[in-house]
Amino acid sequence: MRVTTRIKKSRQILRMVRPFDLSTSDLIYPIFIREDGKTFEIPSMNGQRYYSLDDCVEVCGKVVELGIPAVMVFGVLKEKDADGSIALRKDAFHPKIFNKLKKEFGDELVLISNVCLCDYTADEFCVYTDKSGKVLNEKTAEVLGKIAVVHAEAGADVIAPAAMCDGQVRHIRAALDREGFDDVAVMTYVKTDSCLFQPYFEAMTLAETPRRTVDSSKFRTDVINEKMFMQKVDLDVSEGADMVIVKPAITNLDHILRVKQKYPTIPIAAYQVSGEYAMIKLLSGYGHVDEQVLLMETLSSIKRSGADMILTYYAIEAAKMLREKK
Ligand SMILES: [Zn+2]
What we know:
Oligomer: single chain
Largest sheet: 8 strands, parallel, barrel
Distance between the termini: 35 Å
Bound molecules: zinc ion
Low-confidence stretches: none
Shape: globular
């Protein structure tokens, strides 16, 4: 008689028949580093902290020790300016971060640079627009290319353009190649418009209250439209993206699979974003579920959908759990 229970009989058989296992080498830890040197818990992301540059070295040491191969670097500046030109200064905060981490960890830790205008511009908008609100793709992408060069020069191994404007990969690739950084990879973000980014915006803003009243649907993709999503992936891959980050993860598992099927040779990362992190924290905080069980369930589902890498604020906890399991 055919039954499905035989291969579920023991934990070891279950392990034996699994098509994959989560591993610490799948994980990437996003880290927030403050220029003002203050270290404290991020109010919108319960359990996550801002780090000073010195404290960040300590945390990255832990990341390396746990076997997590990479960090995504988010620098929180003391001040931003009208057009974000502070991003192009070689003595600015972001190059200092890459310099320091590269000196400390060399090739032991992959440094991924999140490149977007909102980190530097006073209005904290990801792209330049004209007075009517039209997105200025070429102008934005050209500046992103220059920022990428500054970060690569300082030690960033991978550039992750996050502005979602058209032409960003093309400009960044060309700028990196022109300046001799042809060995620096581009890992492009493709995002659906989502309220799950909100805790991150609150973490990154310099304003007392979050400013994200801007209509970001002009440059992110409509969550309901899978063709629009794939169109952006197609464009970024054709422009030379080495890797693709799908973001958020939980609302885009089908997109991850779609990218995997269409581009089997392109490595795919999924970003379990701040709102997904908060959902797990809150649900478990209320005692409705076990935090670790839900975390592993979500990470496994993301991996099963086709992701090769997972960016998660839970990376350190997940790595500890995976280590204990062995
Ligand atoms: Zn942005």
